TrEMBL record:
Domain DNA mismatch repair protein S5: 210-328
Organism (species): Desulfosporosinus acidiphilus (strain DSM 22704 / JCM 16185 / SJ4)
Recorded family membership: Belongs to the DNA mismatch repair MutL/HexB family.
Gene name tied to this protein: mutL
Annotated protein name in UniProt: DNA mismatch repair protein MutL
Full protein segment contained here: 1 to 340 of 684
Role description: This protein is involved in the repair of mismatches in DNA. It is required for dam-dependent methyl-directed DNA mismatch repair. May act as a 'molecular matchmaker', a protein that promotes the formation of a stable complex between two or more DNA-binding proteins in an ATP-dependent manner without itself being part of a final effector complex.
Length: 340
């Protein structure tokens, strides 16, 4: 009898993995920006056509890729960032799974143009639908530019699942804003032919970066937090109790330069506001945790946005206490006046 089981060809395997890594255009934007950050870029310029499906381009002035590395970069499980699973305990990069470019290349036309600073000329590498790419010499600035065209051209189900153009672009600008908050020392620009453009200076000022996203008058009211605990340092900006929103959209949580989504962190934060804000309202924050990569795990989902903490209870009380005490110190709170 012949066997019923066979190993999927790499093209099919990549397309299946793409389903998890590249859910929608914003996922591509996030992965490309994270690669630019890992490459040590100081300037990251993003341009988007429509909802990102016709074109997404991310340009950086990072270290670039060599002629040898270019074709490897789009292979699945190909990464320069880790060599084994133990490396995750001392991870300094945002990427480590080596599957973003392979996944993106399997559902689009991907063009990488790259030049390491020390080289005279650069190279372009174009690959469509995960087929073998074409390498060409080109003149270009030092750094890397990745352009994605016709996203999901061979996966019509994905295209159908996308929301309106404005919604998809909204998700992109939201994500660019959060990544800019995680890296105030990097200058970001987001260009779109018809919609508002985001630009940050890269001067390293978080308040100024919040201002670029939410407006300077809101940013001016935010309260600085910076406390070193036993395992973690918590740093960033939180809104006073009278500056609140009806959703948690304006909350950004970051760990060691990575934007994460975590209801655990959000709950610990809001616990710190205690009874100071009415129910169903939420503070505006950008909070960054700095600590050892061995104290948490980001290898929970292919998007690397979910985290599991080793000492959840300790971290939660550290955050709650820090937020509460920072609010107390920032100004006398009305509800406490009577107790003095
Ligand atoms: P990962 O980021 O997990 O390593 P990716 O598929 O995103 O996997 O990228 C594969 C590799 O390509 C990276 O490890 C890196 O060496 C290289 N690379 C990708 N983007 C860039 C970039 N903008 N600048 C320099 N190198 C890059
Ligand atoms: Mg990556």
């Amino acid at each position: 009898m012949t066997s019923a089981i066979h190993i999927l060809d790499s093209h099919s395997a990549n397309q299946i993995a793409a389903g998890e890594v590249v859910e929608r255009p914003v996922s591509v934007v996030k992965e490309l920006i994270e690669n630019a950050l890992d490459a040590g870029a100081k300037h990251i310029d993003i341009s988007i056509e429509e909802n990102g499906v016709p074109m997404i381009r991310v340009r950086d002035d990072g270290k670039g890729m060599s002629k040898e590395d270019l074709p490897l970069a789009v292979l699945r499980h190909a990464t320069s960032k880790i060599t084994n699973i133990q490396d995750l305990d001392r991870l300094q990069t945002l990427g480590f799974r080596g599957e973003a470019l392979a996944s993106i290349a399997s559902v689009s036309t991907l063009e990488i143009i790259s030049r390491p600073g020390a080289e005279i000329s650069g190279l372009s590498y174009t690959i469509t639908g995960g087929e073998t790419g074409v390498l060409q010499e080109v003149g270009c600035p030092a750094g890397t530019s990745v352009t994605i065209r016709n996203l999901f051209f061979n996966t019509p189900a994905r295209l159908k699942f996308l929301k309106s153009k404005a919604t998809e672009f909204g998700l992109i600008s939201d994500t660019v804003g959060r990544l800019a908050l995680a890296h105030p020392n990097i200058a970001f620009s987001l260009a779109h032919p018809t919609q508002t453009v985001l630009q940050t200076s890269g001067r390293g000022d978080l308040k100024e970066t919040m201002g670029a996203i939410f407006g300077q008058s809101l940013a001016r009211q935010l309260i600085a937090v910076d406390v070193q605990g036993q395992d973690w340092r918590l740093e960033g900006l939180i809104s006073p109790p009278d500056l609140v929103r009806k959703t948690k959209q304006a909350q950004t949580f970051m760990i060691n330069g990575r934007v994460v989504r975590s209801s655990f962190l959000s709950n610990a934060l809001e616990e710190g506001y205690h009874t100071l804000i009415p129910v169903k309202f939420h503070p505006i924050v950008a909070l960054h945790l700095h600590g050892s990569p061995s104290d948490y795990d980001v290898n929970v989902h292919p998007t690397k946005m979910d985290v599991k903490f080793k000492n959840e209870q300790e971290l939660a009380s550290f955050i709650t206490k820090t937020v509460y005490q920072t609010l107390l110190k920032s100004r006398p709170l009305p509800s406490f006046r009577g107790e003095r």
